[in-house]
What does this fold into?
Amino acid sequence: MTQRERNWLLVAPAAGWFLVMLVLPLSVVFIFSFGERGAAGGYVPAFTFEQYANLPARFTAFQNTLILAPLGTLAAMLIAYPLAYQLAVRTDPKWKTILLVLVIVPFWTSILIRSYAWIYILGGRGIPALIEAMGLGDVQLIYTPFAVLIGIVYGYLPLMVFPIYVSLDRLDKRLLEASSDLGAPPLATFFKVTVPLSIPGVATGCMLVFILLMGEFLIPLLLGGGKVFFVGNALVDLFLQSRNWAFGSAVAVMLIVIMLVTVTVYMRLIARLHTSRDDVSVM
Amino acid sequence: MTDKDHMSKRKFMQELRRYQKGSVSRRHFLGVTGLGAAAAALGTAMPGLRPRRAYAAGDIGDRVVLATWPNYHDVENFERFTDETGAFVQVNVFGSNEEMLAKLQAGGSGWDVFVPTNYTITTYVSEDLIEPLDVSRLANYDAGAFDPRFADAGTVDGSLYAVPKNWGTTGFAVNTAHDGGKPFATWKDFWDRTMDDYSGRTMVHDYQLTTIGNALKYFGYSFNSVDPTELADAERLLLDAKPHLFAISSDYQPAMRSGDAWMTMCWTGDGKQLNSDIPEIAYVLGREGGEIWSDYYAIPKGAPHREAAYALIDFMLSPEVNAREVMAHGYPVADSRTNALLPKEMLEDPILYPAQDLLDALEFGAAATLTDPNRAELLARFKSA
Amino acid sequence: MRIYSFCVYLFLYTPIAIIALFSFNAGRHASQLQGFSGKWYGRALDNPFVMDALETSFLVAFASATIASVLGTLAAVGLQGIRGPARALFDAVIYIAVMIPGIVIGIATLIALVTVFDQINPWLAALWPEGGAPPTLSMGVGSLIAAHAMFTMALVIIIVRARLSSLERELGEASADLYATPFGTFRQVTLPLLAPAILAGFLLSFTFSFDDFIIAFFVAGSETTLPIYIFSSIRRGVTPEINAIGTMVMGASLVLLIIAQLILRRGDRR
It folds into this structure.
């Protein structure tokens, strides 16, 4: 057996797995997206572009997703960065691990249960009651885009803290010392030295969270009260309520295309921003 | 051991040291996420934590899976069933008949018993998703005891597929503490005031039949209409009302109880439950009409625990058990044997048994609405708007 | 800065505290406290559906993570020696696997497998020898393991390959210089050095699978994993039982984590 054959033999099982569990399903979705809905639901073979022509009927779902996913990613990043910085640079090593663990522990309770806790916090007897007691008026928090945003940030914060922490922790502290020894004010050191060096971590964290948010379904369902509709919710409804497999497939294909385009463009940008490093992303 | 081996081992150790020194992040990674995750899994899988139950009679197995609607049972009845038979009841709750149908169509639902509504049963039969019932295994089923109006839909083409569970109406529940002295009586009130003094406080079902149907009633159209122009009117109303809604959900009790929501589309029993606990919440049937319905117990094709399914249905049909159910959930039954056990005030309750003129205006759901693509798509557009 | 961190931790732990608090609720409704009781913990442990869901989750996570780690590692090693269009194609597939939202994977797998099974099952029935009941393919633990293993295999390949590419240059050459056979190099040098990456990949895969709701929701058929059980319970109104389960899972992981840390620290000192 040549080296070449051996390599192929090693790759073959995984390749077969991807073929059956990824390429085949995606092909089926692609084919179904040109089909029609059966009389009682499901799929009937056909060749029509009707489903794609019908896509504007889900415009709002795509719009909500494309607004709230980047916004949620950004919010999570802005909240996670200072914490990751504090943990990586300013914290006594003795406490580092335990504090880091504490960021991740909530992640081990099902997102379902945690979101339910937020329904209580944001519901009429939670924060709004507090706001009303302070005389600031009557507000509705639960079942709004704001509640969904909170849920998103809450759910994915650990995924953001972690890569940023790792990139900051790897950063050579002597660089920071050198910078301040050379008379740079702390803020300048932060923006000129720390931030550029942490870009890989930020980029990884943002991409992880963004990918997950683009397919999000549970948080809008639980905290959006059925009113804040993501593409994920549109998909679930199409398959689990209206049973329109053909149209659902077209929506799925559209989502895949959007993901491919945005993530590829994003990675190109990051790579250009940081050409010297090869660990920009998980890819 | 050859020299070569030795060398490579030493080199290996050197590399390992270097690796360890240089790679804090890896250790943190393992320590924090990795081992943590493993720990989580191990913790939950520790066999010692699990007490074993000794079942006296194992003939029907130790479980039965029931697919049903929210707030629709007396939980203690399930506990009694478990005590009597050793089988635990797993309750899966659904928000619409469409969801039940989709789950069954996709195959392998794993349900033993489900609770379809009258107008859906013919579709389940034509799609071959429902099992004909063997009456000889339902000792407590007495066809003569049931009011045929609420039992007929269970028989399709002469075969019995489903036995009646409860019947009821779909109206709305309104918290009168906020109505400013102006009572509600019609679906017109419901929609108009959703966009006025009840703005931000109203809930509608996540269910095409009732949400679209009750919007159709605003214009005086049939609750079951599939006429495109009539549906277009309903859609316009729904889209106008959407910014004023608190939520779109078929599980409205928590929000009504907490006071977050003031008004919601509502089924009889939920109205009764809310009204008993919070008297300011009234149950209103729209004067224009709306839905009257009947739910049934049925067994899906391929039920994994068929013995237990029959046992559960039979248990629920026994008049004593059924009476306890009614007392707990407040939905009327069509079974005269059960009604004989119920207290007088329950049988005269205006929420359970509305005045005849209100009842006369109601319609049973039509099978066409379940599979009509336009109604399904309309609801989806409404939700995603 | 410290205050900021404190606030973030407060944000992270308020919902957790509420979950834990309500798990001791004596009443049935999750949102109204009615006295203090530990009975829901007993209920949860006594409930065969909870225990079955846990067992299924554990089985699926373990099986899919094992498959993903073994096949993923093999593929990562093999890929090192493959260049050209085949390599580019494989990379593209991995890229797509990681990037496609779980919901799309779930739905796509569901409709593809249901369609394929519908085609195969009549054949199985026709070809099956007389007498025995022919097997029917359907969605279940098998399809769930396969779907999870697909996604996590991509993760393992990425993690292992990152480690390999930094190792291979230095180590492979060193070892080849010492006249080791390729297989010997792999077994004695590469594999031990890859072990941490493989372990990390395994644990990541395990965690992903154990926690996944959305793929399982579509692909698991009639099987119930813990997240699916929790989802269907939440829709009938959260009982303190669900809170008790959440608290137990978290508590157990925390305790084992601390033990693991202690062991790790002792190992470090040695």
